[in-house]
Amino acid sequence: MTAPIRWGIASTGKISSSMATALGTIDDAEIVAVGSRSQAQADEFAARFDIPHAHGSYDALWADDDVDVVYIGSPHSEHRSMTVAALEAGRHVLCEKAFARNAAEADEMIAAAERNDRFLMEAMWSWFMPSWHELKRRIHGGAIGDVVTVDASFCLAIADPNGRHRRADLAGGALLDLGIYPLSIGRFLLGEPADVQRDVRALATLTDEGVDGTLAGVMRHDSGALTTFRTSLDGLSDLAARIVGTTGTITVDAPFWFPTRFTITRSADGDTEVVDVPNRGLAHEAEHVMERIRGGHRQSDIQTWSATRANMALMDEIRRQVGVVYPGE
After folding, report:
1. 168: left (phi > 0), else alpha (psi -120 to 50), else beta?
2. What is the pTM assigned to this prediction?
3. If DSSP states are collapsed to H, E and C, what string results for 263-306?
4. What are 35-94's pLDDT values in tens digits?
5. In the chain, how many domains are there?
6. Is there a single domain that holds both residue 179 and residue 51?
7. Each residue of 260-297: b (16+ CB within 10 Å) or e?
8. Domain GFO/IDH/MocA-like oxidoreductase, which positions (predicted)?
9. What is the spatial distance between Cα 286 and Cα 49, in angstroms, rounded to a whole number?
10. What residue numbers bound the domain in which 241 lies?
């Protein structure tokens, strides 16, 4: 019988709760510890998910030798320091997206994984969705000819001025939390732009706090295809994505970052094909992490370190163009 992979959860917010729920559906995953800045919050989370060890500090979680791999679900501003500390303590790490505030921090995190011979991956769960892989297979198989454009929008109405999304000190703004998804579907399907300074253009409206409240732009891929992306904290979009090709179109149902259905429409006759592909949410990326760790690997072969580096460099350039700088950068 395969020994379980033992997980620790760092931070007790909404995304950590979602990950704990997902891990509970995986037979050979075991959550053995949770860490928080507050003992009371750690205790509450541990009681809710039946976790044996509740730590009132992150240092105590890193030091827990019962933990094989840590999931980090803290705000973006804390990712670098928490990831490096966990890796230095000998833990493998799955760090929530956006991986860091910037590419320089991402490089520090990857260097720490290499130095300590530990597994490290950005938790970009969409890249593990069965629907995205089926979508890519269909497109590369010529289902809609050559791709001309990919268009995606992720806009939510998030009004709380004190929430993490609107706080510059927590690396808030629409781009790192929401806009990363419209960028990612284009990158997943078509690859990285060759030169972000040449091939990416963005505009934004900044909030009084200095983060991007609404942002939109366009990215050109090596094939010549364009990804158009929009994101906002100030309104709700339809949360779908559309791929236009020379012989047809594909509409990806909302929410496009973890869809269960997409529709192919062929231009010549208007015929449509509805493709249903169920998913299990965050469980797919967690299972991938466990498989890679068991195989002795130090990075993913899907969400590679080079893909993460490219993503951070892309968002750095977009922030440079729109004028968003986080405290401490």
Report:
1. alpha
2. 0.96
3. EEEECCCCCEEEEECCCCCCHHHHHHHHHHHHCCCCCCCCCCHH
4. 999 999 999 999 999 999 999 999 999 999 999 999 999 999 999 999 999 999 999 999
5. 2
6. no
7. eebebebeeeeeeeebeeebebbbbbbbbbbebbeeee
8. 133-250
9. 17
10. 130-278
